[in-house]
Design goal:
Blueprint lengths: L4 E9 L2 E6 L2 E7 L1 H11 L4 E5 L11 H8 L6 E4 L5 H10 L3 E4 L1 H5 L2 H10 L4 E9 L5 E5 L4 E6 H11 L3 E6 L11 H8 L6 E4 L5 H10 L4 E4 L1 H4 L5 H10 L7
Parallel strand pairs: 1-4, 1-12, 4-5, 5-6, 6-7, 7-10, 10-11, 11-12
Antiparallel strand pairs: 1-2, 2-3, 7-8, 8-9
Helix pairs in contact: 1-2
Catalytic activity: 5-[(5-phospho-1-deoxy-D-ribulos-1-ylimino)methylamino]-1-(5-phospho-beta-D-ribosyl)imidazole-4-carboxamide + L-glutamine = D-erythro-1-(imidazol-4-yl)glycerol 3-phosphate + 5-amino-1-(5-phospho-beta-D-ribosyl)imidazole-4-carboxamide + L-glutamate + H(+)
EC number: 4.3.2.10
GO molecular function: lyase activity
Length: 252
């Protein structure tokens, strides 16, 4: 069994780390380079860096910031936001990212997943999916930083991106984002039933018990959080110790 991964997320807007609730009301919480270095030194397993307005503002991810962040950490590092082509992904990998996440561009051009996988290998291609529960109990895929409902069924989209060559999934529950009310366990259980890809769960962490629940009750391999790490509410060393006590295998 693969060791579970603890993954801080750096949501970046205009060169600063920000955090909001349900994808809005963003608050400045720090410098991305300093934050990345601090998390690396604290013992996180991976980092995710998302330029959250790159797509909606029609601009590219800041390559120089990515390069600076990558120079400070020596663990797997995923970059996303505004990646629209094979060339964009190549620029991120060249700047120092280990993996690149695509979201809106994959929805509009699904073949981009296959093209990037063939060029760089499946392991480099992370498909990020922002999902929101509908009144009928299903989940829809949202794009453009959670601003637009695509009407795509999330479970069907997971099946498609799996077949197209994605190497990993980063799935965020928009309903849970920033609420600290726990992961949407039902969502990740449903996703796990239709794909064998590694899944990173995102959205809703409020305490250590939420991490224990997601790892014990679903098959996700990574848990991503922002607020509880940014504000020092959970220390990574303490989290890993508690997870091990609960019988969850984590990286040392």
């Amino acid at each position: 069994m693969l060791a579970k991964r603890i993954i801080p997320c750096l949501d970046v807007k205009d060169g600063r780390v920000v955090k909001g609730v349900n994808f809005v009301d963003l608050i400045d919480v720090g410098n991305p380079v300093n934050s990345a270095r601090a998390y690396y030194e604290a013992g996180c397993d991976e980092l995710v860096f998302l330029d959250i307005t790159a797509t909606s503002d029609n601009r590219s991810t800041m390559v120089d910031v990515v390069a600076h962040v990558a120079s400070q950490v020596f663990i797997p590092f995923t970059v996303g936001g505004g990646i629209r082509s094979v060339a964009d992904m190549q620029a991120m990998l060249k700047a120092g990212a280990d993996k690149v996440a695509i979201n809106s561009s994959a929805v509009y051009n699904p073949q981009l997943i296959t093209e990037c996988a063939k060029k760089f290998g499946n392991q480099c291609v992370v498909v990020a999916i922002d999902g929101k529960r509908q009144s009928d109990g299903t989940w829809h895929v949202y794009v453009s930083g959670g601003r637009k409902d695509t009407d795509l069924d999330l479970i069907e989209w997971v099946k498609e991106v799996t077949s197209l060559g994605a190497g990993e999934l980063l799935i965020t529950s928009m309903d849970k984002d920033g609420t600290k009310s726990g992961f949407d366990l039902e969502l990740y259980q449903a996703v796990s039933e239709v794909t064998q890809l590694p899944i990173i769960a995102s959205g809703g962490v409020g305490n250590i018990s939420d991490f224990i629940d997601i790892f014990k009750k679903t098959s996700v391999t990574g848990a991503l959080a922002a607020s509880v790490f940014h504000y020092g509410e959970i220390e990574i060393a303490s989290l890993k110790e508690r997870l091990m006590q609960a019988g969850v295998e984590v990286r040392q």
